[in-house]
Amino acid sequence: MSGNLDRMVIDRAAKWGASLVGFADVEHNEVEMVVELKNQGWKRAVVMAQQLSRGIVDTITDRPTALYAGHYALVNQKLDILALEVASFLQDLGWRALPVPASAVVSEETLSSYLSHRAVAAAAGLGWIGKNQLLITPEYGPRVRLVTVLTDAPLKAGSPIKERCGKCTRCIDACPVKAIKDTDLALRDREAHLNVHECNQHLWDWQGELGYRVCGVCMRVCPHGQ
């Protein structure tokens, strides 16, 4: 039954627009969540990636662009609809499911969301967390946005894959505010790799002009996306 269910979810998600689909074990893996999502009996996460437009991402140079800001917002909306569709599909089959918004800051102090979609995607084996703290996929590099559906459905969880950043420092060198630190990727603490508040202040600087807190420079220069 599990194999059939896995295939059904993957096929439906792809039909509704997902570029990549994976399943993560959130019962035994340590995935950061807000307190409202913890201890609710969630066993698996369906994590889905939507690839970004290469043409639009390529307009980014040393700063974000209005084209990218609009695209970012549109893809997030599409992902939220995708998560709702997948959650409804699982519910119709008798399983519990909760769609987690693609982009939402629930704590300005820690600049964290309901959960880390990147951590879930890495646990599912869709990619690895790079030096820029973005998920980097073999297929699209970091040029993806993510969304997650928590569920108790018995989906077969994937396994993490080995990081492939090596000695590359393009994202570190390109960061406009030098927020990315050249540290060992084996370190799990986000703060060890990224000055989150420096990065966020840079995003705030562009919000008035673009309407969204976006940058995209470190994503644009990553060779895995090119």
Topology (SSEs and partners):
Blueprint: H1 2-15, E1 20-25, E2 44-51, H2 54-57, H3 66-92, E3 97-100, H4 117-124, E4 128-129, E5 135-136, E6 144-151, H5 170-174, H6 190-193, H7 196-210, H8 217-221
Antiparallel strand pairs: 1-2, 2-6, 3-6, 4-5
Notes on the structure:
The chain has about 230 residues and is an alpha+beta fold. The protein is built from eight helices and six strands; from the N terminus they run αββααβαβββαααα. The strands form two sheets. It has a four-stranded antiparallel sheet with strand order 1-2-6-3, with helices on both faces. Strands 4-5 form a two-stranded antiparallel sheet. The longest helix has 27 residues. The radius of gyration is 17 Å and the shape is globular.
Keywords:
226 residues, alpha+beta, 4-stranded antiparallel β-sheet, two-stranded antiparallel sheet
Ends distance = 39 Å
String of helices and strands: HEEHHEHEEEHHHH
Oligomer description: single chain
Strand order of the largest sheet: 1-2-6-3
Count of helix runs: 8
Please tell me how large the radius of gyration is.
17 Å
At a glance:
The chain has 226 residues and is an alpha+beta fold. The chain has helices spanning 2-15, 54-57, 66-92, 117-124, 170-174, 190-193, 196-210, 217-221, and strands spanning 20-25, 44-51, 97-100, 128-129, 135-136, 144-151.
